[in-house]
Amino acid sequence: MEQANAILLLSCPDRKGLVARLSNFIFQNNGNIVHADQYTSTSSRHFFMRIEWELNGFELRREEIPMVFAPVARQYGMTWELHFTDYVPRIAIFVSRHLHCLHDLILRRDMGELPGRVEAVISNHDDARALVEQFGIPYYHFPVAPGCKAQVEQDQLALLKELGIDLVVLARYMQILSPAFVDRYVNKIINIHHSFLPAFIGGNPYQQAYDRGVKIIGATGHYVTEDLDEGPIIAQDVIEISHRDTVSDIQTKSKDLERIVLARALRLHLENKILVHESKTVVFE
Amino acid sequence: MEQANAILLLSCPDRKGLVARLSNFIFQNNGNIVHADQYTSTSSRHFFMRIEWELNGFELRREEIPMVFAPVARQYGMTWELHFTDYVPRIAIFVSRHLHCLHDLILRRDMGELPGRVEAVISNHDDARALVEQFGIPYYHFPVAPGCKAQVEQDQLALLKELGIDLVVLARYMQILSPAFVDRYVNKIINIHHSFLPAFIGGNPYQQAYDRGVKIIGATGHYVTEDLDEGPIIAQDVIEISHRDTVSDIQTKSKDLERIVLARALRLHLENKILVHESKTVVFE
Amino acid sequence: MEQANAILLLSCPDRKGLVARLSNFIFQNNGNIVHADQYTSTSSRHFFMRIEWELNGFELRREEIPMVFAPVARQYGMTWELHFTDYVPRIAIFVSRHLHCLHDLILRRDMGELPGRVEAVISNHDDARALVEQFGIPYYHFPVAPGCKAQVEQDQLALLKELGIDLVVLARYMQILSPAFVDRYVNKIINIHHSFLPAFIGGNPYQQAYDRGVKIIGATGHYVTEDLDEGPIIAQDVIEISHRDTVSDIQTKSKDLERIVLARALRLHLENKILVHESKTVVFE
Amino acid sequence: MEQANAILLLSCPDRKGLVARLSNFIFQNNGNIVHADQYTSTSSRHFFMRIEWELNGFELRREEIPMVFAPVARQYGMTWELHFTDYVPRIAIFVSRHLHCLHDLILRRDMGELPGRVEAVISNHDDARALVEQFGIPYYHFPVAPGCKAQVEQDQLALLKELGIDLVVLARYMQILSPAFVDRYVNKIINIHHSFLPAFIGGNPYQQAYDRGVKIIGATGHYVTEDLDEGPIIAQDVIEISHRDTVSDIQTKSKDLERIVLARALRLHLENKILVHESKTVVFE
């Protein structure tokens, strides 16, 4: 007996009858909806929906669903994705020298909290090799020398392709990805930025927060786009600081935030709860 | 042209085709769904839904809807309510001597933030009369002498009925309502409790929080049931305290919380976003 | 018997023996310290202290304290202020058309939560007159026509001087104060900015937050300096939002924040718990 | 040149001249105070202070300080402790089968964030051995069979003594320690409780939180006393939940909280920032 669910994530211009059309599609094929989340933007009159239904008893085989659904999607001008809950996404984690997020993700993977498989840790340094390999995860060191960045990215893309990577996670990766790289993984690269965006864009936000004397700092998980720090925001969180906190104290507090916010962003993506529309996300929690 | 929306709030045992049946009901009568929130409890297999659609273009007149929908509801064993967004609920606020919540509600009413009409302020003291009447709200003083409580409640119930009250708000009302009173307004009496329930049930939670040395205090907005402090929780919030906070400091900090949490609970109720099931709420935010 | 306390707020370059010198000054005059907070910046080696002691039993009369303390202060190069807890500061509130913060401050004054006296509400509009006068507070309407701003500021400064105002509160005042005005009340003008500074500097931060798709919004209470939105931050707080929140929802949520953050900043100032050093605050909570 | 600081943590009945007496003690021996935090309870008139000063230039050798300070302490009836910032406390972590807090502490130790040395992980199960030993930490397995608990505790106490353990951390240890054990480590055993105490005392707080339908859950770091869940609270934090969260979702969210709250409580203890008085803590942050 099939235990998995199917998930449709879709968006289109709003029209009468959309919810009925979609729920009928599932009901007429004898599916049982377990989650249905819908949102219509009142400003843009755009319609967003996430429907999850049980494959058990559903009369279409997995591979038939896209074929049968495509005409419906075409009729309404839908952008759509189909996922199955028993598919385990393949993740590559990019990291430089700050390892707290990497370590946290490995811990969650070990505890069974990460709904994905870490297929590779990729770094421009070799520092984390022992830690990573000790947990049985392959480690790839790509030194980035001046002038050879384009070649390195090509090699990385080849590796990602070979490993069948679904999601790239920048867990404090200190290199900027080129537009060519980003275009290959649209809405499939998640970065953790160590500030409450759009405050403190760019380098060393800990120092910037200290210098400005803010009373709260934050962290932001977002999809990577060509414009650095401008990608659609998935999750944010904050923590209080005071005048007593040095730059180093701010860093220590921020690291806890970064780990939690990155993990939350990842989980939402891996559970197929995010729709991106223009520069923003619709997150069905 | 009709600008209002209709809202169906319903729950029933889960079955295949529920979302389809409900969205078809609306679509077949030419309605346009603007919000649809659905939740199925995985533990109890109970189904909850809130659907909001535009009356503009809908082919049933308001008064016809219940008649046409009743057979659907019967078929699936639904508990349901129908609301219209242009109906302005009539509110009675009960208060004793702590007036911060009352004052806050009056402020929100003045700023147009309260989606309801305050028809009466009812108190066992006469202290707040000047404040309330100055804003043009009728004030009713019901002194509660020992032994006459039952009679007072009867008089209050008569007044509420006469005024057509839809929602009773206990904005720090220091009298316990009898089961007979509560039964007349099931899930229609909202209380603000000045602690993070279930911590510090009962009298003087500020002192209890101080004595226990907690580092965080809270406030809870909940529906009133026969069991004091056991009603379904609608909203909660918290704030940090430290050893430096005296009981009086705790009270001051808590008052801000109480105002915000009560206002949030009220708004959720008045916007028909809450379903009560057994001792818990489903809140569609 | 004297019930009030004296408070010294001071800062100077760090040196050995500062705490001893200061506590001896009080002890040798038979004072009893009830609060002593000290902080030394490790980056600038600057020393900050707030000491509060009972005047009851203290051997110097209030007016003698500055004279006796001045040589100590000179010796260490201190910047210092002396306050007494029974002095009730005189406050002027500036407001334009958004009245939620004004209303909140009036409520707190009524509940005895504001450790100061509201001597004037000053506005470039006449809208709030009825509300304000109803609570017995004088209302001053200064229309700001193009080209006459300098004159209006002169008139306002004359009024503030006449009323002996200690603290100016910009409770959503939509006019920019000139450097000449600000210089007259250095670290004595508190503004509430309706965003989490430094994010969304400038006009319409609600719309900016909506457009950027942030998941958290904030409010900032700060001293006003010549550089708009760059003054020393006193207090900040945040609240979560989601894709479902329209600009108007964001505004409604933010208003609660603004009220609380402004009230917190005011309380800290009025209780003499803030030291300003360069562009930042030291807040002894 | 001596880089370390000395820290005095003390409390006594309030009296005039305490701050002066203490700061003079340091100044007269040519010490430079870098932090001084003081608090007097207005209800109990009890005085608490934490003073930290540089040993560099201080005229007493470390071992002389207690001897010279003892008469001062006696005169005022002080309870006091003396610490040095370059001493690295020796920690034993007790754990059962939930390993998220253990894993987190190991991560922080690896990143240099834990101001202490983990000398032993002690468990009633053998599950975590591989994980722990892989990081070079000794692992001790003490199976707890019915009837042999007293013996196991004696063996554990002997081990702690042999290892010179300063702090015992119960990182989700599912055994209740006997009063005899607790008496040997008064205010030196820190437990993480997986609820917002005093809500949901006792077993399975995740289920309790789910059943009660709370909208916020918490975690509590506290010293262990004979009365289970009644020890002095060091740190607490909370996170929002909704009706959509199953017991398992609550557990997942809570685990992040537990890790952060336990780490915060540990850091405060290891930095000698906590004074315990009766059943409460004074935390100088």
CATH topology of the largest domain in chain A: Rossmann fold
The Cα radius of gyration of chain A reads 21 Å
Which second-level CATH architecture of the largest domain in chain A applies? Answer: 3-Layer(aba) Sandwich
Q: Percent of residues of chain A in beta strands?
A: 25-35%
Q: How many domains is the backbone of chain A divided into?
A: 2
Number of strands of chain A: 13
Largest sheet of chain A: 7 strands, mixed
Q: Find the structural class of chain A using helix and strand composition.
A: alpha/beta
Low-confidence stretches of chain A: none
Can you tag this structure with a few keywords?
13 strands, 29% strand, Rossmann fold, 285 residues, 8 helices, 2 domains, 7-stranded mixed sheet, alpha/beta, homotetramer, Alpha-Beta Plaits
How would you sum up this structure, described in words?
In chain A, the strands form three sheets. Chain A has a seven-stranded mixed β-sheet with strand order 7-6-5-8-9-10-11, with helices on both faces. Chain A has a four-stranded antiparallel β-sheet with strand order 2-3-1-4, with helices on one face. Chain A is built from eight helices and 13 strands. In chain A, 45% of the residues are buried. Chain A is of the alpha/beta class and 285 residues long. In chain A, helix 3 crosses helix 8 and helix 7 packs across helix 8. In chain A, helix 3 links the parallel strand 5 and strand 6. Chain A has two domains: 80 residues, Alpha-Beta Plaits; 194 residues, Formyl transferase, N-terminal domain (Rossmann fold), CATH 3.40.50. The longest helix of chain A is centred in the C-terminal third of the chain and has 24 residues. Chain A is globular, with a radius of gyration of 21 Å. Chains in contact: A-B, A-C, A-D, B-C, B-D, C-D. At the A-C interface, strand 11 and strand 13 of A face strand 11 and strand 13 of C.
